Amino acid sequence: MSAFYREKVLSVQHWTDTLFSFRATRDTGFRFQNGQFAMIGLEVDGRPLLRAYSMASANHEEELEFFSIKVQDGPLTSKLQKIREGDTILVGRKATGTLITDNLIPGKRLMLLSTGTGLAPFASLIKDPEVYDRYDQILLVHGCRQVSELAYGEELVAKLRDDELFGPLLSEKLSYYPTVTREPFRNRGRITDLITSNQLFTDLHQGPLDIETDRIMMCGSPAMLEELKQLFETRGFKEGSGNTPGHFVIEKAFVER
Description:
With 257 residues, the chain is of the alpha/beta class. Helices cover 23% and strands 30% of the residues. Strand 3 (37-44) and strand 4 (47-54) form a beta hairpin.
């Protein structure tokens, strides 16, 4: 158990029957880059029960925040969804992940494409002043099935727009595009289709996909990631990694359990 920090739960918010977020204390020794994830979980019968979770808090914040799905028979989330203020969670001492800006070739527009709780690493990244220094435009896309599942992201962006530091940055550079697939909403459709049809860019009054200027980060369901990877690769985009920066990066450590 020495591989983990023991952190105290500070607050829990249930957004829907299937989504919740929680904040916890942060050990001063825990370091991470915005966009990374760590193994977190609970001690069950004296042993750690863990899953990979992206930090939804930024690395300059004193507390940790996580955004999670609820799976009723999931080994971890069936228990984690019941945590309350004052409970203890385990946080792995080492953060890692591919969704960091150094893994991308320099560009002008950063597209953050997410579904469901795949929004979490981008919640961290849009609170990073350096990201706004690197890019002229940041496009945050969040796809869900139902409108209610957008609540976490909508509140996140609204709070940042009211923030003294980030408000001016967001108004100048961030475009937020929530979309749903199964209910009426101002934006409808799957992210892949919205990009292929150029509807996404038309709605935002922006130019179409451009390999010269666009850099992309993706986090979400495995099916969405595979579709988008194929879409970008057929247009000449190359996947980046810690060894070789590219046009796009994917986070594969997605929590579904």
